[in-house]
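Q: Sequence in, structure out?
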Amino acid sequence: MYTNSEINSEIQFLAKSEIRMKILSELYNHPDNIRGLVKKTKITYSSVSSNVNKLEESNYIIKVEKKYHVTPMAKIYFDTLIDFKKSIDIINDFNSLWDKHNLNQLSIDSMKNITDLKNSTLIETTPLDIYKTHNTIKNQLIESSDVKAIFPYLHPEYPQLIEEVLKNRGSVELIVPKNIMNPIITPINEQLRKNCLNSKKLKVHPVENELNLYLTLCDDKMSLGLFKNDGSFDQNRILISDDSKSYNWARELFKHVKQMVRA
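A: Exactly. Output:
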């Protein structure tokens, strides 16, 4: 059993050397000899040979029939490092979304699986298009037949947009603060509203506590918005995606918040 300091030392041994990471990357699925590694990595023979020896001495790779193979433990360390690097890349790519924003209502799994947002796009308002984020969300809602949303605030257009989805025989499930539940659903045509509530086409989960998260799932698309640390919603940027991993990430977050509501 490894201690924490030993694990840290092992990971540092790999992470501090780009050459060792490249060698492991090449050998991960395709065992090879030193000459093959030199050809693939474009690194000098002496550097490859030296680092292969270090990896072999540390039991990260093993030679079998003239080719080097990555050991099972080395694969675990390598996967961990790659996941960490991807997480850092996501944070850097969308830094303006995360920095100085309230992330408290993101679940542990959401943070752990943040790399699932890799193929998302950050939409930001501009001086010439101050409604860019809202119009992006609006277009998603208009074109959808299955909507799940966390609305932490009331926008004047939300009731009409929800009504249009229901009119087209779609379904809507909302998580909203208790104080905006009636204002958001009462403007919907009364008969339509009653029919959809009875048929479960319209579901509303009121929340007593504050919601510090904006989230929509519109058919196969998702969007995410956050609150600033000062408590105000950041209307200037949202993260959107039609990638299946991003959508599943958002769906699990919606389930997490819904469970918190019911608890």
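The longest strand covers residues 221-228.
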